[in-house]
Amino acid sequence: MRRKTVALWLVFALLFSLIAGCGPAQEAPSAPPAESYPPLIPTADPAEPESAIPAPSPVESSPVEPDPVPPESPNAPPATETPIPTEEPMPETPVPTETETPAPTEAPIPTEAPAPTEEPVPTETPLQTETPVPTETPAPQPSADPATPAPEQTVEPTNTPAQRTAEEWLATLSLREMVGQLFIVRPEDLDQALADGSPVSDSAAAMLEQYPVGGVILFGNHVQTPDQLHAFTASLQAASALPLFLAVDEEGGLVARLGNTTALQLPKYPNAATIGATGDPGQALEMGRTIGTYLKEYGLNMDFAPVADVNTNPNNPVIGTRAFSSDPDTAAAMASAMAQGLRESGVIPFFKHFPGHGDTAEDSHSGAAVSHKTLEEMRTCEWIPFAEAGALDGVMVGHITTPNATTDGLPASLSREIVTDVLREELGFRGLVVTDALSMGAVANFYDSATAAVMAFQAGADLLLLPANLPAAFDALLSAVERGEISQARLEESVLRILQCKEAYGILG
To answer: Which of 38, 200, 217, 388 would suit a FRET pair with 422, their CA atoms being 20 to 30 Å apart?
Structure first.
């Protein structure tokens, strides 16, 4: 029984072995690879052989890929899979192609480029279109446009926005320069070589730098020809750091430095008395315009005219027909009209000779001149024409002694009672006050240049005309300020008035 049983088991085992010999050959390979190489199945999946490879390639992108292969190679069967057909796509360089594709994909930076496109801020360009403020551009056009200021300055010399104001000029001046502004001198005071109106020499320019005067006055010997006069006045201005008053006595008639120079061929007037005799102030106005026009053309900006004296003394040796009339009202109307004509032409008029030279019997050029009138008599006659002078005009004070009107016994040009108490305070005059020439006999015969300059300024004058000795007069005035005999405030008051007049007439720029 046991033998039968054993035989049956043997037969069964033989059959099983035969069956197993056929079956294992087909199933054995499938089972083990499924268990031993599960990770390789997705990589070797025929459905996505290239897509599976590119995925690692962008991540590992280069020789990093052989590294993951060796860690999985220790499983022995890799020999069958070492050919790694999956790595054949690697030589196909899909990896570089895909490494390039991610780069553009990583070029979402261009997606940041819209940010810079937002940084140009087109939204800000409207802001810029608002910042240009076209509403503001029309505003500068009349004033700030480089082409327009020049015509504006010629039309309105008081409005010179591109130039320094009188106050700004004053702030830049040294004490010496301020003192210099008080003086008006002959060209010969700078250099004798200028006596014939020759252009400014180097020595004259050096003298002008050392004594920076505020103005120069011309006489007939300085006027030769049109071209010469143009060149002369231009050279004087060019030599001065601060623009000059260029003055002249151009009354019309006997006293006309330019008008009486034949080479200039200018209009001539017989005299002021002839104009006054017409009773028509319009003729005096036209005379002022004509004279002012040709003075301006030749570079002159100040005229010691009109003569505002009332010619009440027929024996007067110096005024006579230079005055418009012996009637104060007629003289006032004519002087005022002529002054207006000069102003309209851009020339500063000076009413002369306060407190009135028409009733004197002497010539102050050679010696003392006296008016015996009282203050009340002067108020009702001599001062009427001078009351017409305004803030843009000047008044010249003569060297007339007035013993019945003042107590100091001084020539009017050196008298505080006349210049300050009467002219400034009683008549309220706010323009420039200039002395008559301090080199005239009525002053120079009694006072030296230094003393006369200090006395005239202390009396209230702003401008000191023709001191006999410029260096002496200049240094004396400078020293008086430094010692405190003349206050800095008093000096600045006159200098500012001078600069304001230059500014008003466009002389500063």
So the answer is: 217
